[in-house]
TrEMBL record:
Protein's name according to its UniProt entry: ABC-2 type transport system permease protein
Keyword Nucleus attached: no
Transmembrane segments: 23-47, 59-82, 103-129, 141-159, 171-192, 212-231, 282-299, 311-334, 355-374, 380-402, 422-440, 446-466
Coiled coil feature spans: none
Top-level taxon of the source organism: Bacteria
Signal peptide segment: none
Lineage: Bacteria, Pseudomonadati, Bacteroidota, Sphingobacteriia, Sphingobacteriales
Keywords: Membrane, Transmembrane, Transmembrane helix
Keyword Transmembrane helix: yes
Length: 493
């Protein structure tokens, strides 16, 4: 049955109207992947030299055993961001008399054909054959390779399991990514644990007890079985549909938003859009990463620790979602934009929903930056000033440029190497967002009155917030002059 699935997929590929474009993209991506694999292989071949320079005081085998778990931790994080789910290709068979186990096995094994599953072998096997095999034995080298296979399979199916669960609940993805980040910070920043020591405690014992290599293989088999059960229990369309009917709620599942009426409904739907789609979710994840941006600069002498630089950092940490997600407004609704034009939804409420979305997420980001008070009360004050600027001025500017964005985005596609929707408009938008606050701040800071500049930034942000209804009317009038051009651009696939 697997050969039938493969044959049908090949026919579907060649009969697609975008076959030519797909071939070009696949050829370019294949060349890029081949180049990366060659570089990884070269790095793996000289890994003993690299480890000798990075850890000059450690034995090569000890340092090698210490980095393996670090690699697989970062590998899991990259898989959560980049690895695709092989789900859509078997949907036509769900209504045919095809055995469920055959479909599930096909879905499960198809995911093994990923470039992520080649990287650990290209990187570590050359070292194992050069050093481990020579210093110990072929059995020990085989044990290392088998353990790599087990951890690779485990990461593969764990990442897929998390991503499939996150399709039902977007918080699963955020929690999983947060746990990985927390583990990394616990080692490299807080020094609570040592991942290298944990890694060596397992892989170091492989040199004396090769049978331990079966342990990661067992973990990999367990994750395969969990994926198998999950897919089998969620296979049929009618089961998925009934489950969605049971779980579906209106925007009142966000009690804070229910009080805002139609604008609250629209904001709630957009929050679901952000959490359930790969491209939009990546904008939120990037915003969470930027929350650690201040750790790179705060507390350092010189320009990096100045108030002027804190204005820049504060604007990005509290407003990166507005900038990153807002630059593709209204492309996120491209697939149903024609429906919005003919629906009973007032565009005023549509804009209010956008303002509400940005205000909620930017507020959350500001709250998450409050620990930076460690670097002084003024640091937190600057963050608050830029928070007001973001939800007042930058939100309005982003929505203004949204009326000039005609590039669609397909939400079903991943975020990795996806340039869909990108145009010169994004580059033009970034300039005023970054430069405008300094137009107000720098003249005063230059003459030694930086506090006045911060005050004016806060006042300007508050003015835009309190006059939001005025700007919504202006944006609505501007939209009506360009709505058909936007809709025509969104229809071009």
């Amino acid at each position: 049955m697997t050969s039938t699935f493969i044959r049908h997929e090949l026919k579907a590929f060649w009969r697609s109207k975008n076959t030519g474009k797909s071939i070009v993209i696949r050829v370019v991506m294949s060349l890029l992947i081949l180049y990366l694999l060659v570089n990884i292989f070269v790095l793996g071949f000289f890994l003993d030299v690299v480890l000798g320079k990075v850890f000059p005081k450690d034995d090569l085998v000890i340092s090698f055993c210490g980095i393996i778990l670090l690699y697989f931790l970062s590998d899991l994080f990259m898989r959560l961001q980049l690895q695709e789910l092989p789900t859509l290709r078997v949907q036509p068979y769900l209504q045919l008399p095809v055995k469920r186990n055959a479909l599930v096995r096909y879905l499960t094994f198809t995911s093994l054909f990923s470039v992520f599953n080649l990287w650990p072998f290209m990187l570590f096997v050359p070292f194992i054959l050069k050093i481990i095999s020579a210093d110990y034995s072929s059995i020990t080298a085989l044990a290392f390779i088998v353990s790599l296979l087990g951890f690779t399979v485990f990461n593969n199916y764990l990442a897929l399991y998390i991503k499939r669960k996150s399709n039902l609940n977007g918080w699963v993805f955020l929690i999983a990514a947060g746990v990985i980040i927390l583990i990394g910070l616990s080692d490299f920043y807080f020094h609570f644990i040592s991942i290298r020591k944990i890694s060596y405690s397992f892989f170091g014992h492989l040199t004396t007890q090769p049978a331990l290599a079966l342990l990661p293989v067992a973990f990999g088999g367990l994750m395969y079985y969990l994926n198998f059960l999950f897919l089998k229990s969620n296979l049929y369309l009618e089961e998925l549909g009934s489950r969605k009917d049971i779980k579906y709620k209106s925007s009142t599942e966000y009690p804070l938003l229910s009080r805002f009426g139609s604008a609250g409904d629209l904001a709630a739907n957009e929050i679901k859009l952000v959490l359930r789609n790969k491209r939009s979710k990546s904008a939120l994840i990037m915003g969470l990463f930027f929350l650690f941006y201040g750790l790179l600069f705060y507390g350092k002498p010189g320009p990096a620790g100045s108030d002027g630089f804190k204005v820049f950092i504060g604007m990005f940490m509290t407003g990166i979602f507005i900038i990153n997600y807002g630059q593709f407004m209204f492309s996120w609704q491209a697939s149903h934009f024609d429906g919005l034009l003919v629906s009973k939804i007032k565009f005023t409420d549509f804009l209010k929903g956008k303002y509400l979305l940005f205000t909620i997420i930017s507020t959350g980001f500001f709250v998450l930056t409050t620990p930076y008070i460690y670097f002084g009360w003024k640091t937190l004050l600057i963050h608050f000033v830029m928070y007001l600027w973001n939800i007042g001025v930058n939100t309005t500017m982003v929505l203004f440029f949204a009326n000039r964005n005609y590039k669609r985005i397909d939400l079903s596609k991943g975020a990795a190497f996806n340039w869909e929707g990108v145009s010169g408009n994004q580059w033009i938008l970034s300039l005023p967002l970054i430069i405008t606050p300094y137009v107000i701040y720098w003249p005063f800071a230059f003459f030694g009155h930086a506090d006045i500049g911060l005050t004016l930034l806060a006042i300007t942000g508050l003015i835009f917030i309190f006059t939001r209804s005025f700007w919504i009317k202006k944006l609505e009038a501007d939209f009506y002059t360009k709505r058909y051009t936007i809709a025509e651009g969104f229809r071009n696939k």
